[in-house]
Amino acid sequence: MSESQASSSPPMLSAAQAPAEGAPAARPRPKGQQTKAHIVDVALHMATHHGLESLSIGGLAEATGMSKSGVFAHFGSREELQISVVREYHRRFRQEVFAPALQAPRGLPRLRAMFAHWMQRTTVELDSGCIYISGAVEFSARAGAVRQALMHSFGAWHDALRRAIEQAQAEGHLSAHADSHQVLFEIHGLILALHYDVRFLQRPESVPRAWTGFENILRRYGAGG
Amino acid sequence: MSESQASSSPPMLSAAQAPAEGAPAARPRPKGQQTKAHIVDVALHMATHHGLESLSIGGLAEATGMSKSGVFAHFGSREELQISVVREYHRRFRQEVFAPALQAPRGLPRLRAMFAHWMQRTTVELDSGCIYISGAVEFSARAGAVRQALMHSFGAWHDALRRAIEQAQAEGHLSAHADSHQVLFEIHGLILALHYDVRFLQRPESVPRAWTGFENILRRYGAGG
């Protein structure tokens, strides 16, 4: 999330109480849930800027103007707070990247839409950071529930992309002989390189390179001949 | 550096006093320089495991059994300590990845050797971490001398790779029409995806995927036909 997005999106849904995708949040939620959702929203903003490991019950209390025991009552532990942030990040990622792509027809159009929305989000995130990338660095050497939540969350996105690749094969848009894991590996590399170049090396000229790389991969695996 | 490597490599050279590549360190160095090199060695070990931002004068004093003022006397600031670590990492990276590849003939053999050594190092680092990757996450949102040192250090490696690609074009091993920045972008993505998969997602089966991706890129840009 960019700073402007994070502050403009109403903190109405916490990860745990989110309705099924697309269903409207019809009734106003109890105050306790709204407060929890607000804390998660502030925590997500902090985590995308400074990492999940920057979060603490005390820091959140200060940022939200609540007491430490007030924040603690909603989560019970720092770990639970971090996991709530991972879930909320996942919910927004799904909403912005995955869900809109389902409007596109199965096969190559949907795979292209997923990549386009992912690119879009990677570009939007350039002011803050992607917790799938920063979290991977923070938690690679740590076991535990936060790492598991991150792996699970990223894994769901990984699987959705692989399904889209396999559907493109089933539709005859990509070669049936291609290894979908291999295609996914190469596509993921482009997003990571884009993030690295634009965010760290400050080379915005790499945005079209990610697109060229993507079209190269599709051609190699049978798209358009 | 893996844990075993870090502890087995003699901490003989600090970044500042390193002789030209390949030249033997003939004379024993003054004690002060040895001490400084030892501190940098310990700090590098900590940084590859926990990030450059985990370093502090106090933490290093504790880890080396020295006084805080003793450590401070060698660096003058935490920032200077971090920069010394970046330089030492760069020196070792150059020694393990770049220098051996220069033994291979110009063109595709040298480019392949660079990728092979890079892959090798990425695999060795899986127990600890690569500060070009963790540092990019830590310093993307920060300005300052440490970020500059990291960008400069990674940039030198980036440039060396691009030169190798352009030499492969000059030798006729890769198409003269290929954009070397594009080729480099795609190759870098493979290493980042490899690091992500093996280190965070714990999928060692991605190692051959990086190789397949590399050969795909070479073929696309004209190698072997």
How would you explain this protein's 3D organization?
2 copies of one chain form a homodimer. The two termini of chain A are 38 Å apart. Chain A has helices at residues 3-8, 31-50, 57-64, 68-75, 78-101, 108-124, 131-139, 145-170, 180-200, 207-220. Mean pLDDT of chain A is 85; it is low at 1-23. The first copy, chain A, is mostly helical and 225 residues long. In chain A, 68% of the residues lie in helices and 0% in strands. Chain A contains 10 helices and no strands.
Output the helix-strand order of chain A: HHHHHHHHHH
Assembly annotation: homodimer
Radius of gyration of chain A: 19 Å
Shape of chain A: elongated
Instruction: Name the CATH superfamily assignment of chain A.
Output: Tetracycline Repressor, domain 2
Q: What level of helicity do the residues of chain A show?
A: 55-70%
Domains of chain A (count):
1
Largest sheet of chain A: none
Task: Give the largest interface.
Answer: A-B, 40 and 40 residues
Strand % of chain A is: under 5%
Q: Averaging pLDDT over every residue of chain A, what do you get?
A: 85
Structural classification of chain A: mainly alpha
Strands of chain A, count: 0
Distance between the termini of chain A: 38 Å
Which architecture of chain A would the CATH scheme give at its second level?
A: Orthogonal Bundle
* Count, helices of chain A: 10
User: Which spans of chain A have pLDDT < 50 for at least 5 consecutive residues?
Assistant: 1-23
CATH topology of chain A: Tetracycline Repressor, domain 2
